[in-house]
Amino acid sequence: MPSISGWLGNTNIPIVDEETRAAAAWNRIQDRPTSITLYRNESALGAQTVRLEYSEATTSAQMQGVAGQPSERQLIVFGVRNHPTVAATNIQRGDMLQYETDTYVIVDVIRLPGEIQAYTERLQGGG
Questions:
Q1: Would you kindly state where each structural domain of the chain is located, as residue ranges?
Q2: Any idea what the Cα angle at residue 108 is, between residues 53 and 122, rounded to 5°?
Q3: Which of 67, 121, 78 is closest to 97 using CA atoms?
Q4: What is the rounded CA–CA span in Å between residue 114 and residue 16?
Q5: Quick one: fold of 15-55+72-126?
Q6: Strand duo 75-80 + 38-40: pairing
Q7: Cα–Cα distance between 82 and 22 in angstroms, integer?
Q8: How confident is the model over 28-64, as pLDDT tens digits?
Q9: What are phi and psi of 31, to 5 degrees?
C-alpha cells in the first residue's frame, strides 16, 4: 500500500501556484468571454468579464417541473482571483445578473486557488 507520508515528501510532485492557476482560469474565460453587470443591493457594479456556462446537472425538483414549463438549468459564472494583471471577479451570494432575457440570482460562491465559481438560479418569470 502506498505511503501518504512518502508521497507528500516526494519533491517530484509539481506544485502550481495560485497566480499560475489564475492565469489558466483567465485563459479559459477568454475562450468564451461574456461581459456582465452584477447588481448588489439594487446598485450596479462595474462590468466584469467572466465565462458563463449552463450546468448540465439537474436536481429532482428541476426534473419534475410543471406541465407546460421548461426544466430549469443553473447558470455557472467563472471568474478569477489573485491574477497578476486582471482584477478579481467581484461576486457574492445574493448578487443578481441579467443574461439574455432572464434574471439570475447568485446562490453559491466557491473560491478556489486562482479562480471563483458562482452558481445561480433563474428567477421565476425571467425577472
A1: 15-55+72-126
A2: 55
A3: 121
A4: 10
A5: Thrombin, subunit H (2.40.10)
A6: unpaired
A7: 6
A8: 999 999 999 999 999 999 999 999 999 876 554 555 5
A9: -70, -35
